């Protein structure tokens, strides 16, 4: 959920054209012989008309005063124009935690809860359910565990999780569109518990998904595991991007979105080290105590570029191809690496 890593200007794409709001969800036509023909059959998510700019019209859900909130949520004021707010959390040091201490215990606790929320969310996904109702249920579930939903009010984001359907790559805002049989849905959850964030996501199948959609999700999960597989103390962070790049090179028909990256996590939601999922020359070496997310977005076809909806958050593929994402938190230990958000 790195707001700084994508442009906030809405760009016209080949599929972005005037239409009546009642037809804002439509089947994506695939012409034989075109690259798009391999994308499958699904509904394209587009912004409703008339456009509403920003998210100040969406009221965040209530959080009881006894729930501890991150600093950005404490400082946020509803009367401010949310799209003009850019929260920069302060951080220092190299992001490493002290292993075998209360700090590690709290970090593991937030990761365990995030995993629990993700698995709870999985059970909510079915045709006819709205992402808004999923968000509401997730919100209540997180509060019931005395935690705060980290996305809410982060740079003005109005909901408690991100729900990205079909061609939406990331940062989809839960809404009242019923999920359709054949959709794919990424649910990205982050919790703030005992002063630490836990972050994870998965792309779920809604009903009977076509073969291209199922394969996309499988390739995405394989890309995440490829990145995790090279994590160990002493390895350069850039090896993660190389491992994912090499897997996608061996799997024709897909590309990796370069707009979003993984990140260090702990007391701060987003901080270095930055984890890029493509070939890169990012400096730095994994050391015991580093904790970060790996969260590749894999896109159908050869165009991984995105454009942003008028809400300032929702990022769609430029050509309306489907995208999937999967995310885990990885802790580097003295002898290897441990995934903290496994179910």
UniProtKB/TrEMBL annotation:
Alphabetical UniProt keywords: Aminopeptidase, Hydrolase, Metal-binding, Protease
EC number(s) reported in the record: 3.4.11.18
Domain Peptidase M24, chain residue ranges per copy: 106-334
Known cofactor(s): Co(2+); Zn(2+); Mn(2+); Fe(2+)
Entry's cofactor comment: Binds 2 divalent metal cations per subunit. Has a high-affinity and a low affinity metal-binding site. The true nature of the physiological cofactor is under debate. The enzyme is active with cobalt, zinc, manganese or divalent iron ions. Most likely, methionine aminopeptidases function as mononuclear Fe(2+)-metalloproteases under physiological conditions, and the catalytically relevant metal-binding site has been assigned to the histidine-containing high-affinity site.
Reaction it catalyzes: Release of N-terminal amino acids, preferentially methionine, from peptides and arylamides
GO biological process assignments: proteolysis
UniProt binding sites for a divalent metal cation 2: 199, 263, 295, 327
Binding-site positions, substrate: 171, 270
InterPro entries (UniProt xref): Creatinase/aminopeptidase-like, Pept_M24, Pept_M24_MAP, Pept_M24A_MAP1
Binding residues for a divalent metal cation 1: 188, 199, 327
CDD domains in the record: MetAP1
GO molecular function, one term: metalloaminopeptidase activity
Entry function: Cotranslationally removes the N-terminal methionine from nascent proteins. The N-terminal methionine is often cleaved when the second residue in the primary sequence is small and uncharged (Met-Ala-, Cys, Gly, Pro, Ser, Thr, or Val).
Family the entry assigns: Belongs to the peptidase M24A family. Methionine aminopeptidase type 1 subfamily.
Name this protein carries in UniProt: Methionine aminopeptidase
Natural source organism: Pisolithus tinctorius Marx 270
């Amino acid at each position: 959920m790195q707001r700084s890593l994508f442009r906030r200007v809405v760009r016209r794409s080949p599929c972005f054209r005037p239409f009546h709001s009642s037809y804002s969800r439509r089947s994506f036509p695939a012409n034989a012989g075109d690259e798009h023909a391999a994308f499958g059959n699904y509904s394209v998510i587009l912004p409703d008309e008339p456009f509403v700019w920003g998210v100040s019209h969406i009221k965040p859900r209530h959080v009881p005063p006894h729930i501890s909130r991150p600093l950005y949520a404490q400082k946020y004021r509803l009367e401010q124009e949310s799209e003009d707010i850019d929260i920069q959390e302060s951080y220092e040091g190299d992001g490493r935690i002290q292993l075998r201490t209360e700090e590690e215990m709290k970090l593991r606790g937030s990761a365990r809860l995030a995993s629990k929320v993700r698995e709870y969310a999985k059970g909510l996904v079915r045709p006819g359910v709205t992402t808004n109702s999923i968000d509401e249920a997730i919100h209540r579930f997180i509060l019931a565990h005395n935690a705060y939903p980290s996305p809410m009010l982060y740079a003005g984001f109005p909901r408690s999780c991100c729900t990205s359907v079909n061609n939406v790559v990331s940062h989809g805002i839960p809404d009242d569109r019923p999920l359709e049989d054949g959709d794919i849905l990424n649910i990205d959850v982050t919790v703030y518990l005992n002063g630490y964030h836990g972050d994870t996501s998965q792309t779920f199948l809604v009903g009977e998904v076509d073969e291209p959609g199922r394969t996309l999700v499988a390739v995405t999960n394989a890309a995440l595991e490829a990145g995790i597989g090279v994590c160990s103390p002493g390895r350069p962070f850039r090896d993660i991007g190389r491992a994912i790049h090499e897997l996608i090179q061996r799997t024709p028909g897909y590309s990796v979105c370069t707009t979003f990256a993984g990140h260090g996590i702990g007391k701060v939601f987003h901080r270095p080290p930055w984890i890029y999922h493509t070939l890169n020359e990012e400096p730095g070496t994994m050391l015991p105590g580093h904790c970060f997310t790996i969260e590749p977005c894999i896109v159908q076809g050869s165009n991984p570029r995105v454009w942003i909806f008028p809400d300032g958050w929702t990022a769609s593929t430029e050509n309306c191809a489907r995208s999937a994402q999967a995310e885990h938190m990885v802790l580097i230990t003295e002898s290897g690496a441990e995934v903290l958000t496994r179910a």
